[in-house]
Structure formats: structure tokens, C-alpha cells
Design goal:
The complex is a heterodimer. Chain A is an alpha+beta fold. Chain A is built from 5 helices and 4 strands. Chain A has 2 domains: 30 residues, no CATH class; 93 residues, no CATH class. Chain B is 45% helix and 29% strand. In chain B, a hairpin with a 5-residue loop joins strand 1 and strand 2. The chains are: A alpha+beta, B alpha+beta. At the A-B interface, strand 2 and helix 3 of A face helix 2 and strand 3 of B.
């Protein structure tokens, strides 16, 4: 029992305030106190940086034996790939950027920074793509672990 | 660390299964006589273009190291392919 609650109850016991006033004061106390509820989903501590990107596909559309695909790509490979892309000479970068733009991805390879890639990888930990098509016959999951 | 083992398993629709364990360390050693002159030539070409060769070498090394842990597992009704780089 905290001090303020004790004071209110003391004042009520001494007859200095009515029960209704005490009730109002206690309610105000509860409303003003910040309530901290620990999130059960994310445990405290440093956030784990994902190491792999997983793609899992389960296709039972054909009716017979299912086709399963399980791919695990180390994120180190993606980091190195992005770094390699930034080392492309100007003469090669132009056509690549143009091809990306024509494909609907307006991306400038020269502006990619290492810190951006690291931030992207860190946030991949929250990535979870679940696709359920054709009444559960085709399932696709993409996540980082 | 660079990958040292490649595991490959292929099952065809005829029921044949091919299993390969390739010790990549030996492959790297065997490729050295070709890789060293190739790297020297590449460095010269890169310097001529104005890029630093050490950056490209470091990135290539990271790419090689990044291959470790790659798993591709495709299990289809008529064939199976399993590739793992350790």
C-alpha cells in the first residue's frame, strides 16, 4: 500500500473526509499512476540480429505428393552482395539503374550505404510473410531467423 | 571462415540418387594457381579504371564467407535437390 493511499485512508478514519470523497481521491490516484505492463512478446534484452533469411514453400496443389521448397540464405551473403553492387563502375551502374527503373523499382545503387543495409537487416527480424493461397494448398512463408 | 564442405544430393525421376560431399578446401587449394594470376590481372584492370582493388578483394572474400550456411532444399514429386554449404 503506497503512502498516498495510506494518507487518504487515514483521513477517512479520522473523519476528515467522507467515504465518497475518499473514493474519488483513490480513483484519481489510480488514474494518475502510470501503468506499466511488460510485453510478453518481446523479452527484455538486446535484440538478436537475424543471421538467415528463410523461404519455405509448401505446395500440395497437384493433389499427389507435395512440393516443398526450403531455402536458407545467410544474411552475410546479402550484405556482401549489396557491397559488391556499390562497387560497380559508373559505366555499368547506369544501365543497371535504368533496367531497375523500367522494372518498376526506381533504385539508385550509388546511394546505398552500409548503415542502411545494416538497419534493413536488423529490421528483418520483424519480417514475417505468410501467404496461404488456393484454400491452403499453397503456403509460402518468408522470415528471418 | 570460408566454406569447407559442399553437400549435394540429387534424386531424379528415374529413382537415381546422386550424393556428393565436396571438400571445398581442396577445391580452393587446386584453384590457387589459377586464382592468383587472375586476381593480379583483375587488380591491374581495376586500378586502370580508378577503383581500389583492395575493396573489391575484400568484398569478394566476404561473398565467399557469406556462402557458408546456404541451404537449398527442393523436394518435388519427381525429383529432389538438396544443397548445403558448410
Amino acid at each position: 500500500m503506497n503512502e498516498q493511499r495510506q494518507q487518504i485512508l487515514q483521513m477517512l478514519a479520522e473523519g476528515k473526509i467522507t467515504p465518497q470523497e475518499a473514493d474519488r481521491l483513490l480513483l484519481a490516484l489510480e488514474e494518475s499512476a502510470p501503468v506499466v505492463v511488460p510485453s510478453p512478446e518481446r523479452p527484455e534484452g538486446p535484440r538478436a540480429v537475424p543471421r538467415y533469411l528463410r523461404v519455405v514453400v509448401d505446395d500440395t496443389e497437384d493433389g499427389g505428393r507435395a512440393t516443398k521448397v526450403n531455402i536458407r540464405v545467410p544474411l552475410q551473403l546479402i550484405r556482401a552482395g549489396v557491397k559488391l553492387a556499390t562497387l560497380l563502375p559508373e559505366s555499368a551502374r547506369g544501365p543497371v539503374d535504368r533496367a531497375l527503373s523500367e522494372g518498376g523499382v526506381p533504385f539508385d545503387l550509388s546511394k546505398v550505404k552500409t548503415s542502411d543495409v545494416e538497419e534493413l537487416i536488423e529490421h528483418l527480424a520483424d519480417l514475417s510473410v505468410d501467404v496461404d493461397e488456393k484454400e491452403g494448398k499453397v503456403k509460402v512463408r518468408i522470415f528471418a531467423e | 571462415m570460408i566454406p569447407f564442405l559442399l553437400v549435394l544430393r540429387i534424386r531424379t525421376d528415374r529413382g537415381r540418387t546422386i550424393r556428393l560431399w565436396v571438400p571445398l578446401i581442396l577445391v580452393w587449394v587446386l584453384l590457387l594457381p589459377i586464382a592468383i594470376p587472375a586476381v593480379i590481372v583483375m587488380c591491374l584492370l581495376v586500378v586502370a579504371r580508378g577503383t581500389r582493388p583492395l575493396r573489391i578483394l575484400a568484398t569478394g572474400w566476404r561473398l565467399l564467407r557469406g556462402l557458408r550456411g546456404l541451404v537449398i532444399d527442393v523436394d518435388a514429386p519427381d525429383s529432389t535437390v538438396y544443397l548445403k554449404i558448410i
